[in-house]
Amino acid sequence: MSVNLIFKIAAVGILVSVLGQVLKHSGREEQAFLTSLAGLLLVLFWILPYISDLFDDIRRLFAL
Questions:
Q1: CA atoms within 13 A on the CB side of 26
Q2: What's the CA gap between 61 and 50, in Å, rounded?
Q3: Where are the beta strands (DSSP E) in the chain?
Q4: How far apart are the first and last CA of the chain?
Q5: What 3-state class would DSSP assign to 17?
Q6: What is the DSSP letter of 63?
Q7: Cut 0.85: pTM above it
Q8: Which of 46-53's residues contact partners 24+ apart within 8 Å by CB, and which partners?
Q9: pLDDT computed for residue 64 by the predictor
Q10: Is 44 helix (H, G, I), strand (E, B) or coil?
Q11: Cβ distance 36 to 16 under 8 Å?
Q12: Are 15 and 32 in contact (CB under 8 A)?
């Protein structure tokens, strides 16, 4: 896993947090929830290949 991925995840987290707070204070809680959900899905799609590699490595480790 590269350091760039960690920085991108942190940037998305900060951006979603700030945007969510602005939306909540302006009374748009539904949009704040959707923004949080979109940020979560974006990060999940970024780390999905690493999770898949992890499960492949574990499967290969226990396969005789």
A1: 10
A2: 16
A3: none
A4: 27
A5: helix
A6: -
A7: no
A8: 46/5, 46/8, 46/9, 47/5, 47/9, 50/1
A9: 64
A10: helix
A11: yes
A12: no
Structural domain containing residue 13: 3-62
> What is the token pair recorded at 57?
């490595």
CA dist., res. 56 & res. 49, Å (int) = 10
Cβ contact 12:39 at 8 Å: yes
Amino acid at residue number 54:
L
Residue (of 14, 15, 19, 13) closest to 32 by Cα position: 19
pLDDT tens digits for range 43-57: 999 999 999 999 999
Q: Locate 21 and state its tokens.
A: 């707070």
Report the SS3 class of residue 14. Answer: helix
The total number of structural domains in the chain stands at: 1
